[in-house]
Request: fold
Amino acid sequence: MLKYTVLLLYLLTTSLSLLQANAHIFVYHRFGDTRHPSTNTSLKELQKEFNYFKNRGYKVVKLETLINAIKEDKEIPDNWVVLTIDDNFKSFYKRGFPIFKKFGYPFTVFLYLKATEEGYRDYTSFKQLREISKYGTLEYHSYAHGHMANMSEEKIRKDFDRGLAIFKKELGVKPKYFVYPYGEYNPLLERITKEYGFEAVLNQNMGAVSKGTDIFDIDRCALVGKPKLKTYLGFKELHNVEIIEPTSYPKSGVLTRVKAKVDKNAKKAFVYIRGHGWRAVKVKDGIIDYKTSKKIKGKRMKIGIQVGMKVKVKVFMGE
Ligand SMILES: [Zn+2]
Reply:
């Protein structure tokens, strides 16, 4: 009898975890460029990651395929992976791009247009971008790559107007997707982004994509250096988490409490504070109440909650 109960429990948990399948979107920046270790992926590492996808049954699909599946409210296959590249660096064109072509993997590059328009040394030209667009998709990352969550409405609109006009003029199309420079956003920027008619918006928060993902707040994990690829691929999206505290970036610059509502059956969770890593916390009656004293580094505060392998990270911007 015990044996059958165990088997039944096993089947139940397995099928429950299968209920929510999750795809993963990754973001790269520079390739084979040791001058910038915090945004670089070596070519050896890139091939290792691509071989991992290939040998472990992952299917690299177009960003559009995943976004359309979310829009149609379809189940998202667990083995889907989407590859994105931010910032149109020359190192992608010169070193990363040939490896993407070799594996035949689709990709999307999010463009920082001023860098190309003004011919910055580290960035691709429009001619190179047009060549790239035969193999992958080009989307929008801003005109001037500013800290848009700290800009006035007028300045934000100016940046969009200028960047989108250049995109259309040089590349002949209107972009459909947008990623926030530095992964920084606030309600004002979110609202303006929607007004400009983007179909989907991606952030740079660790996490996963599943049925019910907010199409205007799609998570991406950054792959730089020697990333924890297997951990990232194991992440599932934590739905229905409510962060009760903090509600905003602390004026004192010190975070004193993280309070959140999660699944009432959860016993244990992890809290992430950007710059301070993850910490195990107790859950009582579905409530996490973690008291601390953490100095926030910079204007971008990120708070993450993890229950099992389910993760959700939120961004709070300082002024
Ligand atoms: Zn960027």
